[in-house]
Amino acid sequence: MELNTIKDAFERVVKKQKLSSSKSQEVIHQVGCEIEQALTEILSAQDPSSPVDQRSILSELKLKLNAVGPVQQLEGSHKELNLSLSKYTKLLERSLNPDISKAYRDVDFDHHIVNQLIANHFYRQGLFDLGDGIIDEAGEPDLTILKSQFLVMHQILEAMKVKNLEPALNWICANREKLNQNGVNLELRLHSLQFLEILRNDRQADALKYARTHLAPLASPHKDEVLKLMGCLLFAGRLDNSPYSEFTSPTHWEKTMEELTGQFCSLLEQSYNSPLSMTMAAGFEGLPTLLKLANVMAAKKQEWQAMKQLPVPVELGKEFQFHSIFVCPVSRDQASEENPPMLMPCLHVLCKQSIMKLSKSSTRIFKCPYCPADASVAQCRQLHF
């Protein structure tokens, strides 16, 4: 609801700004026309045959400008704009807490891990100088191994940007066994891009030779894809206007680069996205809830820093869900091997410790906290995610 209110206020500011700009242009145009007309009359006054008094022209111009009232018109539109902008600013300050330090908790981080995350982030972005600076300041030379790994990846990607696939193919040859275990066909994608690039340059014979050398060994597990590529031979030099024009889309290069990046990181046992950027993105998404919770606790004079776990769930998007988890709706505890999720006969799920507390004994019948159904511990079954 607050976001809708902020959006409405923002749209009002935009509307007032457009009206103010339009009014300013209109006033400037009116003043300009009057001045141009006066200049024309003054220039004509220089003609001896035209007895026109320049003072009277300027006096008349002054009267016309006073009639237009540019200052009054501009003051009115700007005053309305400033009023809307002032209300919008106050609404932002009231609705969005600018002091995010209230959500901060004093947590002891492992400095080595933090330094590794920051250096890792810069290296995977290709910002090697910044990564080196972090490592030098932190005094952790052991982290330089990350630089050499990501340096190879960026060299491959930079070469692919100019459609040079040789470094990528060399890397695949060196890691073919591991890539085959992952069940990827990255080698076929790269050879397909090279084959199509040769065809686009109207070199049909060279493309056919390339296909026999590099695509033929891959044809067995990828028959349909290779057959489509062979059909492209009929349209050498004019693929853009052929039934196979989809192969000419630049997105194929972009997707292949993304896939290569993902496979490269996978072989390094690194995540595709930077852990630092993902952590910060998750923090930004959960920040409104944390700020609201901190304000509520401060009003109740409860100590935010003393909490061992959050009393409310922090909802994050699917992009931040990396594995299946279960949080007991009764105790708010996350399931573990010692406290697994249990399915009751009514199909509601609680953690084992919550069920034991409700039953108070292994034989006693207890009521489900979410429906009128009764159950016993023996009737509950452990769930496995």
From TrEMBL:
A zinc finger (RING-Gid-type) spans 328-371. Gene3D superfamilies: Zinc/RING finger domain, C3HC4 (zinc finger). It holds the Pfam family zf-RING_UBOX. It comes from the Eukaryota. Residues 328-371 form the RING-Gid-type domain. It is found in: Cytoplasm. GO terms for molecular function: ubiquitin protein ligase activity; zinc ion binding. GO terms for cellular component: cytoplasm; GID complex; nucleus. GO terms for biological process: proteasome-mediated ubiquitin-dependent protein catabolic process. PROSITE patterns: CTLH (PS50897), LISH (PS50896), ZF_RING_GID (PS51867). SUPFAM superfamilies: RING/U-box. Residues 149-206 form the CTLH domain. The keyword DNA-binding does not apply. The keyword Ligase does not apply. Keywords: Cytoplasm, Metal-binding, Zinc, Zinc-finger. Transmembrane segments: none annotated. This is Uncharacterized protein.
